[in-house]
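Exercise 7b. Backbone tokens:
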């Protein structure tokens, strides 16, 4: 929220969605009514100014006055001039309003909130409590002066006004615990009545509140002193509206262990887990708030858990203590001149010997309950009980606990006050979790709760004697009976008691105990025992799958799909894959559940902005069909969300997807949502429900690998890569299952495409994701072989096919076998010839033969027939290159230049055209010669193009891949070598020669000669004894290197003790270190390719097969006639009226539906095999453990026998 604050009273204070009106001190509501009519129009104009994106928002819809969190409608006939009645629930969604004193005037609501909540009211979405609490707090804007005034008006302290002397005390003490001198002036004497705080104390405005800062510790918190009769609603308003605490999702009331003791390590683990639960669930923890016993340890764990957390994630630890039991409480009282908020400096004196307690410095909030006494413990119990009861009975819309805030009492050790707290909690239907093994009253209750038989007073007393012998010995008989009665009352409600054993303390023991306690209390409550939906929400919140399966989803209860939609949405958002599977198994129709509102909610309010940013980067980097489609889909859902950072490309208008496309494929949209956010297990559950599982698995692999490349977080990128590999494995295993069942249907899956995956098919996605394992499996390779040979049988030897290229009459003699026979025998030969010559392999073979002939012709022209005027052979060469140009133009597409071989083809044709331009200038000898040189260089490019052709060979293909990867290694090696070469070359030239002006000779000395030295050519000009001055020039105007610098005796000046060692070091570094490093790099590259030799070759083979399958089925160079025909047909169509063809909708053909239905059956078989394999492995492991246990038992028996014999 952005605030504009004004200091003059009566001015509007504008926020983005709020308007605050401050009053003069002493003003009242009548001033509001006089002023509001004048300011109403200003406010409406301000609403339209601040909310221009909602012009249809009715600013005169209504007005509401809110005071003390209650909404009161204003009569439309009042002088305020408002026409319509007020809407309800201003606390959740407030667009504009005004505060005046304590009164809030609420105006219209934004349209997009209305649209969003309409789906929630229809029961399709679950409202977010965090959104509710955050917005409701945002509507309550208070300054420090307002807060001080609110506290002073609503919170009181108590002071004794009747001095009643305590006969037992030696000092002049009152029954309240204070000395007579500590009483206020005008205190009356009371000698007759028994002292009672209600009669003998009086309430005054509280004088102790604000921030508390602990000396020398730097810890700060909030505190308040209040009367024990304070209204719980007012206190709750203080905590939520003024202290800005979020509405709790859970209350954990900790009791027991108020005295100092050494906390057991297992108990410390339980406390740590308790704090973690509070932090993760957004809970409040209620304790005694003092720096002793369990409260002290809870404070320490709170401190340790919040050191590295942001303030929004801090644990809310609220200490409720008796004001009369607080040591050094005088420092908490405000100064008389403190008008604003007060900051108290509190000193913790642990070594001070008195019956009072120090406050704990790690609690975030302290509530100090005052009943006018001093030194009387447990005076806060009543207020704490009332506050807990009030919070637990508050109605919270769309709560996961039956519309209320749950509360649980956590018991550890303790004595009388702990027992009373448990008794009160049970009477208020609050579940209790008791730690057995923590001692005292907790062990008493835990042992009796587990005991069998009838509960008697003697058995209770026996347990008290066992666990509390000293305490029981000091009790009178009446007090003992009271203790027994309280324990019996507690045990009369066993469904409210949950016992955990301290020796079994684990990571999940506390969470399971609290969730089980809440569930038992909820399910046995008279009002909620039939609220199965509420019980299911509770178990979902705590991720208790076993309880949900055993207690709720029983055979005698039938669930409708609509009943599970709310919890299904929550399970998706909270990433509960096991619950999602449970709901699907119990009747949830996922396709009906996934309407447009649900998907919009998932992609807007439950979609990471970082994921969207990475998706946008990946789309711009790779620009393939799938990434573009997914980005458009996400952008379509997030149109109402403001994206903060947009690139320049995104500022243009974007043509988004058709909504009907998403509605046709809701499962795929949900699966993509889970995959993009790396929800590993959840995405697998959804994958099992989708149609086209093989395509979906490959699409997920492609998305995850693309996102992993653009993620800055290495760990997140590694997780994406791992999940991508898992989906690739799933696709391989599922396709293998399909292919083993039916080869033809499995091959149909490979070419099945779906618009939900950008219109790509399985092969395209696998290649884009570089899923070599999928491409290399036998089923895919057999399919590629069918495409490669066309109608020719794959059993036909290659040499037979090549022989028929030259002796094609052999085709009619049955020399070549085909996969099928023509229907009409009269046209048998015609079909055979057509099938043969249109086979991609035959086209490829013709192309290779004619390409080799083209290279031979090119070489002949360059070496023997390059005349001033082009000869017929050279013109024929021009025609062949033109056909190559047409071929490349036909193959051009969006990803044409992503293939380096296509870049090489384009470069070769470009050089050839440049050579023609120079070569045709035959009158200019230099231009003509330059053309010949360009042709020669171009011949190298055309010849190297043969390498790509031989990738189809099983033997040569992997070697070519090794060569390509080694070129990359050479590139990095050259960078390292260039550093040494330039360093040595410059130093050598500078030492030997002075002021060389010829650039070509500088290049020779600095680059060329050090490069030759790497191959063993030793430089001869660094040794003065062998230097030959006849091979150099001293003036630099000859075609010789510059002579070295000489001294007065005409001898080389350079110091040999520098030049010779310099050359030795250089040759050692380059010839031995760098060259061997390059060899090692080559060895690693060859080894990595050799490990997956067959897989890499099969993956590379796909590109060549697809290239020739997508070409025209006419061999080079006869394909030129097909291009001429295509051009003529294109020109003819331009003169005719074009007919628009409607794009076909995927999954609409019967063949696709049959294939997908068959794949679904194969998927079920595949999942059954996986589960059976997992169960078998677990059984084998269990059997091994049992055998190991038997051996250990035998060994123990043997050791006992040996020990007995030794005795």
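Sequence design result:
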């Amino acid at each position: 929220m952005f605030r504009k604050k004004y200091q003059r009273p009566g001015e509007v204070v504008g926020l983005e969605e709020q308007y605050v009106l401050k009053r003069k001190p002493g003003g009242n509501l009548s001033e509001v009514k006089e002023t509001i009519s004048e300011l109403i129009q200003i406010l409406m104009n301000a609403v339209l100014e601040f909310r221009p994106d909602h012009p249809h928002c009715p600013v005169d819809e209504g007005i509401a006055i809110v005071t003390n969190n209650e909404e009161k409608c204003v009569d439309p006939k009042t002088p305020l001039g408002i026409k319509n009645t007020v809407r309800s629930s201003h606390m959740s969604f407030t667009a504009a309003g005004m505060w005046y004193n304590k009164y809030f005037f609420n105006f219209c609501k934004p349209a997009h909130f209305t649209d969003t909540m309409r789906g929630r009211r229809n029961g399709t979405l679950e409202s977010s409590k965090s959104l509710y609490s955050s917005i409701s707090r945002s509507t309550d804007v208070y300054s420090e002066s307002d807060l001080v005034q609110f506290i002073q008006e609503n919170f009181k302290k108590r002071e004794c006004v009747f001095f009643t002397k305590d006969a037992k005390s030696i000092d002049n003490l009152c029954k309240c615990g204070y000395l007579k001198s500590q009483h206020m002036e005008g205190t009356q004497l009371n000698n007759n009545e028994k002292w009672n705080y209600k009669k003998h104390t009086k309430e005054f405005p509280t004088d102790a509140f604000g921030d508390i800062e602990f000396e020398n510790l730097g810890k700060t918190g909030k505190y308040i002193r209040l009367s024990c009769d304070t209204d719980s609603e007012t206190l709750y308003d203080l905590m939520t509206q003024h202290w800005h605490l979020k509405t709790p999702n859970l209350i954990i009331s900790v009791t027991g262990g108020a005295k100092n003791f050494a906390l057991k390590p297992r108990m410390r683990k339980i406390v740590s887990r308790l704090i973690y639960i509070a932090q993760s669930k957004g809970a409040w923890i209620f304790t005694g708030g003092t720096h002793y016993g369990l409260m002290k340890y809870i404070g320490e764990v709170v401190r340790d858990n919040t050191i590295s957390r942001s303030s929004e994630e801090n644990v809310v630890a609220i200490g409720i203590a008796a004001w009369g039991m607080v040591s050094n409480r005088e420092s908490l009282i405000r100064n008389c001149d403190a008008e604003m908020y007060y900051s108290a400096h509190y000193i913790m004196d642990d070594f001070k010997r008195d019956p009072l307690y120090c406050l704990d410095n790690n609690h975030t909030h302290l509530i100090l309950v005052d009943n006018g006494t001093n030194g009387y413990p447990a005076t806060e119990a009543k207020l704490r009980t009332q506050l807990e009861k009030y919070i637990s009975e508050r109605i919270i819309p769309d709560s996961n606990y039956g519309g209320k805030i749950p509360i649980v009492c956590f018991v550890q050790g303790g004595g009388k006050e702990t027992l009373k707290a448990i008794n009160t909690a049970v009477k208020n239907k609050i579940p209790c979790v008791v730690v057995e093994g923590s001692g005292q009253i907790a062990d008493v209750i835990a042992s009796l709760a587990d005991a069998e038989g009838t509960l008697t007073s003697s058995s209770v007393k026996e347990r008290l004697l066992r666990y509390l012998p000293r305490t029981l010995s000091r009790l009178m008989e009446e007090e003992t009976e009271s203790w027994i009665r309280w324990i019996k009352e507690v045990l009369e409600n066993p469904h409210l008691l949950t016992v955990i054993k301290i020796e079994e303390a684990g990571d999940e023991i506390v969470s399971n105990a609290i969730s089980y306690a809440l569930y038992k209390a909820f399910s046995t409550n008279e009002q909620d025992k039939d609220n199965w939906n509420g019980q299911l929400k509770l178990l979902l919140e705590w991720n208790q799958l076993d309880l949900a399966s055993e207690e709720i989803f029983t055979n005698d209860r039938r669930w409708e799909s609509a009943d599970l939609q709310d919890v299904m949405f929550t399970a998706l958002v909270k990433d509960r894959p096991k619950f999602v599977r449970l709901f699907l198994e119990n009747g949830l129709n996922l396709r009906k559940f996934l309407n447009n509102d649900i998907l919009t909610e998932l992609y807007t309010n439950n979609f990471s902005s970082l994921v969207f940013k990475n998706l946008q980067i990946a789309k711009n980097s790779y620009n393939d069909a799938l990434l573009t489609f997914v980005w458009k889909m996400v952008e379509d859902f997030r149109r109402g969300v403001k994206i903060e950072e947009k690139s320049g490309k995104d500022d243009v208008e974007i043509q988004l997807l058709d909504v009907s496309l998403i509605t046709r494929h809701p499962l795929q949209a949900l699966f993509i949502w889970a995959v993009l956010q790396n929800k590993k297990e959840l995405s697998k559950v959804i994958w099992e429900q989708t149609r086209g599982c093989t395509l979906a698995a490959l699409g997920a692999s492609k998305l995850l690998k693309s996102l992993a490349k653009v993620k800055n977080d290495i760990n997140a990128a590694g997780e994406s890569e791992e999940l991508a590999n898992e989906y690739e494995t799933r696709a391989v295993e599922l396709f293998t299952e399909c292919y083993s069942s039916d080869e033809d249907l499995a091959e149909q899956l490979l070419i099945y495409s779906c618009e939900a995956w950008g219109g790509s098919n399985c092969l395209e996605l696998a290649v884009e994701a570089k899923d070599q394992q999928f491409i290399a499996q036998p089923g895919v390779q057999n399919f590629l072989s069918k495409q490669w040979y066309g109608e020719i049988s794959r059993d036909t030897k290659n040499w037979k096919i090549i022989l028929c290229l030259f002796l094609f009459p052999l085709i009619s003699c049955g020399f070549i076998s085909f996969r099928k026979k023509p229907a009409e025998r009269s046209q048998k030969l015609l079909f055979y010839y057509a099938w043969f010559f249109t086979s991609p392999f035959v086209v490829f073979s013709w192309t290779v033969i004619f390409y080799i002939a083209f290279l031979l012709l090119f070489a002949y022209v360059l070496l023997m027939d390059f005349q001033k005027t082009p000869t017929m052979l050279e013109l024929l060469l021009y025609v062949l290159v033109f056909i190559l140009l047409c071929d490349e133009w036909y193959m051009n597409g969006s990803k044409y230049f992503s293939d380096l071989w296509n870049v090489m083809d384009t470069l070769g044709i470009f050089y050839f055209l440049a050579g023609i331009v120079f070569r045709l200038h035959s009158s200019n000898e230099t231009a003509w010669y330059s053309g010949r040189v360009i042709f020669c260089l171009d011949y190298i490019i055309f010849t190297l193009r043969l390498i790509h052709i031989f990738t189809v060979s099983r033997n040569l293909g992997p070697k070519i891949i090794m060569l390509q990867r080694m070129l990359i290694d050479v590139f990095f090696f050259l960078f390292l070598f260039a550093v040494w070469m330039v360093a040595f070359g410059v130093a050598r030239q500078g030492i030997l020669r002075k002021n060389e002006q010829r650039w070509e000779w500088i290049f020779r000395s600095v680059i060329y000669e050090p490069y030759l030295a790497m191959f063993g050519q030793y430089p001869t000009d660094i040794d003065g004894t062998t230097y030959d001055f006849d091979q150099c020039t001293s003036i630099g105007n000859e075609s010789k290197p510059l002579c070295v610098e000489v001294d007065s005796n005409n001898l080389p000046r350079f110091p040999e003790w520098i030049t010779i060692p310099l050359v030795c070091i250089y040759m050692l570094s380059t010839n031995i270190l760098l060259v061997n490093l390059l060899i090692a790099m080559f060895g690693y590259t060859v080894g990595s390719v050799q490990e997956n030799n067959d897989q890499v070759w099969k993956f590379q083979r796909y590109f060549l097969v697809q290239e020739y399958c997508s070409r025209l089925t006419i061999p080079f160079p006869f394909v030129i006639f097909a291009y001429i025909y295509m051009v003529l047909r294109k020109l003819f169509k331009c003169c005719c009226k074009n007919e628009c063809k409607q794009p076909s909708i995927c999954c609409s053909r019967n063949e696709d539906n049959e294939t997908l239905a068959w794949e679904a059956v194969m998927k079920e078989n595949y999942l059954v095999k996986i589960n059976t394999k997992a169960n078998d492995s677990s059984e084998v492991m269990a059997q091994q453990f049992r055998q190991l246990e038997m051996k250990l038992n035998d060994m123990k028996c043997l050791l006992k026998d040996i020990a007995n014999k030794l005795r």
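Instructor comment: The radius of gyration is 43 Å. The mean pLDDT is 78.
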